[in-house]
């Protein structure tokens, strides 16, 4: 329930103890008649390697809450030799970043790896700066653009930084 005001979940069909992925499935089921979204309600640490055995995955969209999980995903892919696209959206206050890399590429992959700092390095934000729903939607749109471009084999910058308070964005790293 505490995620309803700042994330895209419907209240219809949800109880107090529903996971975020189940809430997303319920929300998308309410919007799409024939929803083929596959939900795996488990910690990524328990299922990541198996996902690549069970499914033909071209791209991973990372929307996790912490850097440790991002590190885990990236390092696991590197360790098992899975080379795929990653689109990673990060947000804090009125600032956001979208990383769009291929884990097998030397330039973008190393740049991304260097961006995986420790969670303790993240500054504490005031409550009003943690979850700003309109900016979350803008970040989701920027991530969707990256996904679309990558899947269409179009060039997309490795890292774009957004400062929504100034209404500006900067390409921090391109191919």
Notes on the protein architecture:
- It is a single chain.
- This protein has helices spanning 20-31, 44-54, 67-80, 106-114, 133-151, and strands spanning 59-62, 85-92, 95-102, 159-163, 168-173.
- The protein is of the alpha+beta class and 175 residues long.
- It has a five-stranded mixed beta sheet, with helices on both faces.
- A hairpin with a 2-residue loop joins strand 2 and strand 3 (95-102).
- Helix 2 runs parallel beside helix 3.
- The longest helix has 19 residues, at 133-151.
N-end to C-end Cα span: 41 Å
What global shape is seen? globular
Q: What percentage of residues falls in helices of 4 or more residues? A: 25-40%
Strand order in the largest sheet: 1-2-3-4-5
Instruction: Indicate the radius of gyration in whole angstroms.
Output: 17 Å
- Oligomeric state of the chains? single chain
Number of strands: 5
Which consecutive residue ranges, at least 5 long each, have pLDDT under 50?
Answer: none
- Tally of individual helices: 5
Helix/strand order, N-terminal first: HHEHEEHHEE
Q: How much beta, percentage-wise? A: 15-25%
Mean pLDDT: 83
Name the features.
single chain, 175 residues, alpha+beta, five-stranded mixed β-sheet
Offer a concise description of the structure:
Helices cover 37% and strands 18% of the residues. The protein is an alpha+beta fold and 175 residues long. The radius of gyration is 17 Å and the shape is globular.
